[in-house]
Each structure stands twice: as structure tokens, then as C-alpha cells.
Amino acid sequence: MIAAAATHLSVFDKAMGLFRHPPKNQLLRANAEHFTSFDQDRPLQDYEFCVLDTELTGLAPRTDEIVSIGVVRIKNLSITANSYYSLVAPRGELPKLSTMIHRITPQMLKGAPRLRTIFPEVMSFCGNALIVGHNIGLDMSFLNRAAMDILGGKLHTPCLDTMRLAQIYQQELWESYYDQFDGQVSYQLYDLSDRYGLPSFNQHNALYDAMQTAYLFLFLVKKLRSGGVKTLRDLYMAGRSWRWYF
Q: Starting at the edge strand that comes first in sequence, how are the strands of the sheet with 130-133 ordered?
């Protein structure tokens, strides 16, 4: 359910093919139409980003489920007060192991909406913003499964992975200051935030993790911009093996 583009052009060629057979669902059709003609050459501050995180019952998209979603909006490269959060009632039982991680209990999920109910809300909230996340491929695998089940198609929104951005930034540091090479760098969200001296939030809460990721994203973008990354295309080229998730 995750496709990695070899070049930035192949992403849009694929989108053009999808657009020749537009999705039947109105939300998916609008999503596909917007990103078919998506412009990568504007300054980074011109884009809006929705930083997204999910808490899950497990790591298998085919069998596990989303139990909470948090989204934080970034505009003009600043975190806004506009956010979204919801608990999500799974169809099956909540595994005890997952509760130990995210501290969401069956009692907390009583009366929570099903994913089918809130998924259009999440899509509408994100709108035409690019999606950002830490190891975002995992979140998108669950969201694309939901999109297929609920709306009959996949999302076409390009997604940026702060884990990958951190790897790019660390590589630049090592290339510039070879004596500072550290092969033991942890790319876990909260380890990176601590390493870079960023504000700290409670872990394993979808909204707090989205906020933590938003701070990390802005830190990394600021550092990469000082190195000449000014547009979204520059960001792509900096990664070389950059991944766009669909």
C-alpha cells in the first residue's frame, strides 16, 4: 500500500494515470485533482502542512486498527492553534499490549466514534495540506486501508517523513564535520527531539506526538533551509531517495 517514487516526475505521471480514471467518491476525486497539478517549486513557507499521528492496536494494517488520530496544522512554517483529535473505537477487542503503550483503555473507547464516521472529517481537516509524520509510511498504510474500505480508493496526498529528514540533516552534519560522526544516533521521535533540545510532550498520545513531530519538522526544515533547501523540490533533491507515500 506504500509506493516509493524513483523520481519526482514518476509520482505525477502516476497521479495523471489515476486522474484519467477519477475516483467515484467526491472527497477522493477532489484530492486526486488537486495533487495531479501539484506545484513543487514554491518556497516552503507557501505550503500548508498537516502533521499527523495515529495510535494503533498493532503494526499490521490488514489486521490491526487505529484507536486515535491527532493532527496539527502548520501554516507559514509556524504551528497554528488549529488541531484535530479523536479517539476511535476499533471493531475488535483492544489488545492489552497496545494499552500498555498508548494507555488507551476499553473504557475510554466506550462511545468513541468508528473510523468510518470520522475519516471524512480527517480528510476535510487536512484538505490540500501536505501530510507530515514520523515514520509516516506506517500511519499512511492504515489510512489508505481505511480510505479503500470507506471511500473506495487511496489518498493521493504527498507525505513528508521527519525520520527521513533527520537522516538527511545528520548526513549533512557528518559531511561538514566528519569528526562529529555518530553511528549510534537514534531516530526515534523523542530521542531526536531531546538531541535537538526541542520542547517535550507526553509520549504515545496521538495529538501530543503530532505536536512533537511538528516541532521536529520545523527545526529540520529551518536547518535544511540554511543549507540551501528553499522549495519543496529542493527538499526532494536533498533526499535523493526521497519517498512519497500514497
A: 78-87, 66-75, 49-56, 130-133, 159-161
State pLDDT tens for residues 117-133: 999 999 999 999 999 99
Contact by Cβ (8 Å): 131, 84: no
Q: Which three cell numbers stand for residue 2?
A: 506504500
Contact call for residues 92 and 57 (beta carbons, < 8 A) = yes
State the CB neighbour count (10 A cutoff) for residue 198: 16
Identity of residue 169: Y
**Would you list the DSSP string of the chain?**
-----SSHHHHHHHHHHHHTS--SSHHHHHHHHHHHT----SBGGGS-EEEEEEEES-S-TTT--EEEEEEEEEETTEEEEEEEEEE---SS---HHHHHHH---HHHHTTPPPHHHHHHHHHHHHTTPEEEETTHHHHHHHHHHHHHHHHSS-----EEEHHHHHHHHHHHHHHH-GGG--TT---SHHHHHHHTT-----TT-HHHHHHHHHHHHHHHHHHHHHTT--BHHHHHHHHSS-----
Q: Alpha-carbon distance 209 to 205, whole Å?
A: 6
Enumerate domains of the chain plus CATH numbers.
Answer: 8-165+191-239 (3.30.420.10)
- pLDDT of 36 reads 84
Give the type of residue at 233: R
pTM for this model (two decimals): 0.87
Going by pLDDT thresholds of 50, 70 and 90, the confidence category of residue 246 is very low
At residue 134, what is the residue type?
Answer: H
Which pLDDT belongs to residue 239? 64
- The closest of 28, 22, 31 to 150, measured between CA atoms, is 28
